[in-house]
Automatic annotation (TrEMBL):
Gene3D superfamilies in the cross-refs: Chorismate lyase-like, Winged helix-like DNA-binding domain superfamily/Winged helix DNA-binding domain
Stretches assigned to coiled coil: none
GO biological process, one term: negative regulation of DNA-templated transcription
Domain of life per record: Bacteria
Lineage: Bacteria, Bacillati, Bacillota, Clostridia, Eubacteriales
Molecular function in Gene Ontology: DNA binding; DNA-binding transcription factor activity
Species name: Clostridium cavendishii DSM 21758
Protein name in the entry: GntR family transcriptional regulator
Domain (HTH gntR-type) ranges: 8-76
Keywords in alphabetical order: DNA-binding, Transcription, Transcription regulation
InterPro entries, per database record: Bact_HTH_transcr_reg, Chorismate_lyase_/UTRA_dom_sf, Tscrpt_reg_HTH_GntR, UTRA, WH-like_DNA-bd_sf, WH_DNA-bd_sf
Length: 240
């Protein structure tokens, strides 16, 4: 299984083989995989190599270590790294996405949004995002009625990004504020659970290329099902 003469590093070959076994169901979600000693014997490699491979799988959210118990297969999570729609992200992962529109109404622009939007009316779109039959996110989007053509609930079951591009808008970037929140009864109803679950609340503004705010979004994600990776870099010339 491991070709030590290959230019591909041994730890990487091992890592890919562990992933293959997980995908094939040899080790299922929640199951403890073989110990480091067993893996070392089975693959004929050092335990240091085993640790390196497993360490990367832990960082990628594929495995989790539990002290004194072993290393277990994690439940797959939705992972967002770049600027893309939720629909596009799920499609790329090969998983099944269903969008349920809870409400779609036209409202007078709330006072707290009047400094952002100079329009009298907004569409308020409340949607659940269901991945592989589990509710992962609740999204509430506010967008000026003047920005959109004809909309209905059926259209809103697809990608909002793609829909807005069809109306002539090109989405460039977003600004988000993130907050961990406690589970309330209303969240248990939304996410169809009786348990207290970790939740991540996001408030974001999405902009076009010329800096125009296209829509606002208030979202709540199950943070045990969703990973948001943020890349931060130092701007050149800012450090003296």
């Amino acid at each position: 299984m491991i070709d030590k003469n290959s230019p591909i590093p041994v730890y990487y070959q091992l890592k890919e083989d562990v992933k293959r076994k997980i995908n094939q169901g040899v080790w299922k979600v929640g199951q403890c995989i073989d110990s480091e000693r067993e893996l070392s014997e089975n693959y004929g490699v050092s335990r240091m190599t085993i640790r390196q491979a497993l360490g990367e799988l832990v960082q990628e959210g594929i495995l989790v270590r539990e002290k004194g118990k072993g290393t277990f297969v994690c439940e797959p999570k939705v992972k967002q790294q770049d600027m893309m729609s939720f629909s596009e992200m799920i499609n790329k992962s090969g998983r099944n996405l269903v969008t349920k529109v809870l409400s779609f109404v036209k409202i007078s622009t709330p006072e707290e949004f009047q400094d952002i939007f100079r329009f009298e009316q907004l569409y308020k779109i409340d949607r659940l995002r269901i991945v592989d039959d589990e509710v992962v996110a609740n999204e509430i989007v506010y967008i000026p009625c003047d920005y959109c053509g004809y909309l209905d609930e059926e259209i809103l079951k697809g990608s909002l990004y793609k829909l807005l591009e069809e109306f002539g808008y090109k989405i460039a970037y977003s600004e988000s504020a993130l907050q961990a929140i406690l589970t309330e009864d209303k969240h248990k109803i939304l996410f169809n659970t009786q348990e207290n679950i970790p939740l991540l609340k996001s408030f974001s503004k999405t902009f076009t290329e010329n800096g125009k705010i296209l829509f606002l979004e208030e979202s709540i994600y199950r943070s045990d099902k969703f990973i948001l990776e943020v890349n931060i870099s130092m701007r050149e010339g800012k450090l003296k």
